[in-house]
Amino acid sequence: MPHDRPEDASWLHRYVTAWGRAPGTSAFLITSFVVSMVAISVLSAVFFAGLGMVILLVGLPLMTGALLLARGFGVAERAMLGWTGLPEIAEPEWRRPAADTHWLSRLLAPLRSGHYWSYLLHGLIINPIVSTVTFSLAVTWWATTLGGLTYWFWQAFLPDPSVNDWPGWLQAQLPFLQGATVRAVESVAYLGTGILFGITLPWVINGLGRLRHAIAAALLGRWPSDELAARADAEARARQSAVTAEDSAMRRLERDLHDGPQQRLVRLQMDLAATERQAVAGDTDRAAALAREAQQQAKAALDELRALSRGVAPPLLADRGLLAALTALAEESPLPVGTDLDPALDEAVPPEVARAVYFVVAELLTNAAKHSGAREVAVSARVQRDEPSRLRVSVTDDGRGGAVVGDGHGLAGLQERLHGLRGALTLESPPGGPTRVDIVVPLALGARPATPASLS
User: Fold this and answer.
1) Long-range Cβ contacts of 122-125 (<8 Å, 24+ apart)
2) Edge-to-edge strand list for the sheet holding 435-442
3) Quick one: which of 420, 417, 415, 416 has its CA closest to 455?
4) How far is the C-alpha of 241 from the C-alpha of 40, rounded, in Å?
5) DSSP SS3 for 337
6) Are β-strands 390-397 and 424-428 bridged in parallel, bridged antiparallel, or unpaired?
């Protein structure tokens, strides 16, 4: 019936896909069996030798070595599972001792890790048993399929069949079977068996592969505690990045104040003092010239203070929000800046994120005006409402390109600032331009850290 055709096509597609994955899964089942036999030999020898000598203390390093070997075999198992076409099993969180930890504690650290013991359990007990069963079934299905489908060819090389070789009760029921008739019956029987096993082969092989994948995911993959540990590490790194970024920003502001406005204000003070002396001496022309120079120094100091104020949160950001602050940045930029700003910015973006994003955009606009040779810049900021919610900001200029993120450069400092909020920054700046900087910052508390992949 016409309405059945989509279902038939879907079933046929799944069956063809299963056949496409069967060779890789079969290779995994066979290879993993060989590796598991090697693993149980090596691990049992090293681990039980260490266990037997644990009273002499030398056994502890041997047991640690067995755990490290088990991890290696487990990593190989996860890699070979990639041949099955099933999803990759995520790497567990391997906790590393701190750098200042005593060497003996670092040596014995695997003995305190649940993942190492789980890998040892997998390599020493579970995998040898399961791989033996799955290997036997896989070889049986392939051998029966290929042997049954080709029996008509290679039976000519076998001795002539005889009903005398059959069970007595079957001879009594089929007394007419002789010679060629027996050969024909056997060919048909073998062919039917080969067809049956061949039809079911992809389902059986891929089912065995899924079984192995499920066991490996439980013993060799990530645990719920790994997610908590990873989140705690990310939070710790974020706090450290925030402290480092703030410290760098304060040092930079201090240096810029010392090298810029402070020097000009000292010069202004000296010019005013000289003006006063010339006025008292009655040299009005000289006093007027000094006053004009003082006016120029005051104007230059004011301009530099305005530029430096972009590194300090302006009252506008606190009073009217990020939307108004970014709009003001665009209007004050020496370059024409086009903006595409989400009206929901002020409602969705928390103050600490708004402050950091303001600094980053201000620095990017300053870099574009000073170094890019651009004629115009475009700034967009959108709130993504998916789970978790994120703020995405893009700054693009039509300059010469060639920008890089290097240690000690401004962009590296911006990355550090964003890492403090678990955000990420990516740069695309081919020679000849344009230059595009994309920023993504999680808005939800406890959200996963942003990664460069999430910017695409």
Assistant:
1) 122/70, 122/74, 122/77, 122/215, 122/216, 122/219, 122/220, 123/36, 123/39, 123/40, 123/43, 123/69, 123/70, 123/73, 123/74, 123/77, 124/39, 124/40, 124/43, 124/44, 124/47, 124/70
2) 337-341, 377-384, 390-397, 435-442, 424-428
3) 415
4) 45
5) strand
6) unpaired
Q: How far is the C-alpha of 382 from the C-alpha of 134, rounded, in Å?
A: 52
pTM, rounded to two decimals = 0.55
Q: Which amino acid is at 108?
A: L
Q: Which CATH superfamily is domain 316-455 in?
A: Histidine kinase-like ATPase, C-terminal domain (3.30.565.10)
Q: pLDDT tens, 62-89?
A: 998 999 999 999 999 999 999 999 999 9
**Per-residue pLDDT tens for 4-53?**
444 445 878 888 888 989 999 999 999 999 999 999 999 999 999 988 88
Is the Cβ–Cβ distance between 119 and 73 less than 8 Å?
Answer: yes
Q: Where are the domains of the chain?
A: 2-220, 232-309, 316-455
Could you read off the pLDDT of 359-403 as tens digits, one per residue? 888 888 888 888 888 889 999 999 887 767 889 999 999 888 888
Q: How remote is the C-alpha of 209 from its chain's centroid?
A: 25
